[in-house]
Each structure stands twice: as structure tokens, then as C-alpha cells.
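seq:
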Amino acid sequence: MNRVPPAPPLPLVAILGPTASGKSALGVSLAERFGGEVLACDSTQVYRGFDIGTAKATAAERRGIPHHLLDLVEPSELFTAGEYRRRAEIALGDLRERGRLPIFTVGTGLYLRALLEGLADAPVRSAELRTRLEARAAARGAEYLHRVLARLDPAAAQRIAPRDQQKIVRAIEICVLAGKPVTEVHRAGPDPLAGFAPIRIGLAPARVALHARIERRTAEMLERGWLDEVSELIRRGVPTESKPFDFIGYRALREHLAGRMNLDVASAEILHATRRYAKRQMTWFRREPDVSWLAGFGDDPEIAEAAARLVAARVVSLAHAANSNAPAAVRAPADV
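struct:
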């Protein structure tokens, strides 16, 4: 009996790069050329109401291209890399059925890793254990749990910031419930994404140019009403201890609105934090395999052309491997 060969993998574009490097602009450009749709891969953009400071693309910037995986949960809800993968797989199934090219704009490397490489089979959450841990943190200070994690898993404690209580609680929870360090749990049994062939494109603008772009973009965000957005979030009663208020800029602007920080000081703090974040992003992305790096910004026409050539070459290669049966929506345009 003849066996039916497995379906060949379909292309999946992942645009990596630091904040303000033009990932969104490049994603839209490639989507227009290759019949694609954009999927956000960013841990800040999943929260509703936190828009300007997380650099969600505006309607004008999207230019009619559908965007997915934005505004998934309320600010008070917990959202994990595992949940991101679940939602992304649903979106990918829809795009596959419609013959559309998925184009991920990646700000959070962990989310991309969770999607492409899979996550370890970690224990489910324990509400009882979490309540105990959070009570101890409230009684003994924010960094108490970090010291506990350092005893259980020094490697994990090095990776997680002392004040990132959400990640610390989850790490301790896994250590306790699995009976071994969370680092060891994460090394075991990932489940890679099947049916897609990633095309990783990295944006690496010069540091001086990137810092200048970050400064301009921060000023533009404030001019567009970032402060009003924060004021509205507070008026709506969004808890100040919710995760999104730890995102760059939101806590500083809240402090300004409360009269505890001058706006110039808040702006300077945002710039400094954004530059540090960009550096951390690049450190992570440099460890990603098989990235084609482009030395510039995603909204630069020359960079967009170079990225289009990379995508076209891979799409053609995959189409040939599938005996030229690739969906017409992701065919290479004639001009590349």
C-alpha cells in the first residue's frame, strides 16, 4: 500500500530586532508583497488598553493588513508564553486554511522560542501555593521570593529580575511541584512547531542611530497622548500592581500624574529604560539560530527590499520542494 507523504512545511516569517527598529513597518511591507498577515509576538501587546507605550501599530500604520495576537487579555489577567503558543497555533491554523503567509513581529524572544521550539511539560498552577508565596512576599518584601528562588535554582534566579514577582512565583511553583529546579524542567521535552519552516530576519541598526530613533519615538508617543492613556487606565481602576504597569514608561508616567515625578525626569527614565531593553533584546536575539541579519531599520526601502529577497528565495525553495504546489498567496512577486 502506498503511503501518503507528509505535507511539506509552509513558510513562516519571524522579524527580530530591538524596540524601535521598524519591525512593524517591515512586517506590513512584506505582508503587502507576499499576501501575508501580521502576528504580534510581544508580551506587552497582549494587554488591552496599554497601546501607545507598547508601540502597537495604529490603523494607519497597518495599511489594511490584518494584525493578530493583540489585545488578548485584560491588564489584571495572567498571560504566559504557553498561552501565547496556544493562541498563535490557532491563528496559524486559520492562516494556513486561507493560504496567507504568517509574519511575526518579534519583540519577546521567549514567546518566539515557545512557539517554534515548544515548552517543557511544567506542572499546572497551584492556587494554594501561589497564595502562600504572595503572602510571604507581602510580609517580607518584594525581593524575599527571589532569595528563595536563588536557593532552589541559582541559574533561574540569575535570569529573573528580583522584582519580577510573577515570574519568580511561577519558577518557585515549578521547583516545588516538580521536585527539581525549573531550569532542569525547561530542558526536558520541548514540542517543536510542526508544519512550518521559519524564515528569521533580524534588524540590527547602528546603536547611535537606534538611540536617536528611540528618543524621537518616545517624544512622539508623549505627543500622541501616552500620558492621557495612563490617566484613563487609572480612572478605569486598573490595579497599579497589575503586570502592565511594570512595562517601560507606564509606572513613571503614573508617578508623574500622582505628583511624585517631574515629567522631564519621567521622560529621561523612559529613555534610559528603553535603551537598556533594546540591548537585552539584541543579546537574546543574537542567540537565535539561522537569522539573516540586516544592518538597518525596517522602514528603510533598501532594507525592505533585502528582506523581500530573502523571503522570496525561501518561498521559492519551499515551493519547489512541494512540487510547485505552494499556495498562490505566498508566491514570490515577479519583481524580486
